[in-house]
Design a protein that fits this description.
Blueprint (H helix, E strand, L loop, with lengths): L1 H28 L10 H12 L3 H33 L1 H15 L7 H8 L3 H25 L3 H9 L4 H38 L5 H10 L3 H29 L1 H10 L4
Helix pairs in contact: 2-10, 3-6, 3-8, 5-6, 6-8, 8-9, 8-10, 9-10
């Protein structure tokens, strides 16, 4: 019950500032006659008519599917490669220049190249998300594995932990705070790249719909799409916070005990 009250209080605290900003938006735009800056009432009306319709299936669900596939792909590749590079110093030294080169290339620049090899279907858009979102997961995983405490590593070695057991019982738990931090950064990058990929070449998705609204001067609908993306990002951030609090519960408990908190 106490945890529930604490969660409700934290949620209200998080929603306080957005509620104030929305109120200011409503007040400042209430008498707007500018075609490009419609009132909040017009945008909310367009939001209801646009997204609670066939577009939910035609645009929102395909975007969420691409986002989920790209994000999970980035996490799997980033963690797998990060554990390997973090555990092998010579391999890390060998691959570091190549990885730094590819990390410096902005993922949107790769879209024309990816279109040549994988077409303009979902594969291209998922690969674009992976190419951009994999880096924070990869780099954080490498640093997390490298920072494993020597005493823990020696203890695991003395107990004969090796192979998958060492990975499951020592490496991943010890590196999990930094892995989760990388996953949080990758989530916001994935949303950005999902929209960019759909803006380039697509026949469905939130990015495609927003561009179509802009080109047809459906301004309230365009603003409603931007509002939907903000709500999507906020909702996913809340879900990730729940995931993070569950996965890193032991870590937070450890830090509290180290600080002498109950």
């Amino acid at each position: 019950m106490r945890a529930l009250r604490g969660g409700a209080k934290a949620l209200l605290f998080q929603l306080g500032l957005p509620a104030v900003l929305i109120g200011l938006w409503w007040l400042l735009a209430a008498r707007s006659t500018n075609f490009y800056y419609p009132t909040l009432d017009e945008i909310l009306s367009a939001f209801r008519e646009t997204w609670f319709s066939d577009r939910f299936v035609d645009d929102i669900l395909p975007s969420l599917g691409r986002l989920l596939a790209g994000y999970l792909g980035a996490v799997v590749i980033g963690v797998g490669l990060g554990v390997l590079l973090g555990s092998r110093r010579r391999l890390r030294a060998l691959l570091e220049p190549v990885l730094e080169f590819f990390r410096a290339v902005p993922p949107p620049v790769l879209i024309p190249v990816l279109m040549l090899f994988s077409g303009i279907g979902d594969t291209m858009k998922i690969v674009v998300i992976i190419t951009g979102a994999v880096w924070p997961v990869l780099l954080n995983t490498v640093e997390g594995v490298r920072a494993i405490d020597d005493v823990l590593a020696d203890t695991a070695r003395c107990y004969g932990l090796a192979g998958p057991a060492r990975l499951r019982r020592l490496v991943l738990p010890a590196a999990s705070p930094q892995i989760v931090a990388g996953m949080r950064q990758a989530l916001s990058i994935s949303i950005i790249l999902m929209v960019i990929g759909e803006m380039f070449a697509s026949s469905s998705g939130l990015g495609f719909a927003i561009v179509q609204f802009q080109r047809s001067f459906a301004i309230p609908e365009m603003w409603s799409g931007i509002l939907l993306l903000g709500l999507l990002g906020f909702g996913l951030s809340l879900l990730f916070g729940l995931f993070e609090s569950r996965v890193l519960r032991w870590h937070r408990g450890l830090r509290q005990s180290q600080r002498g908190e109950k």
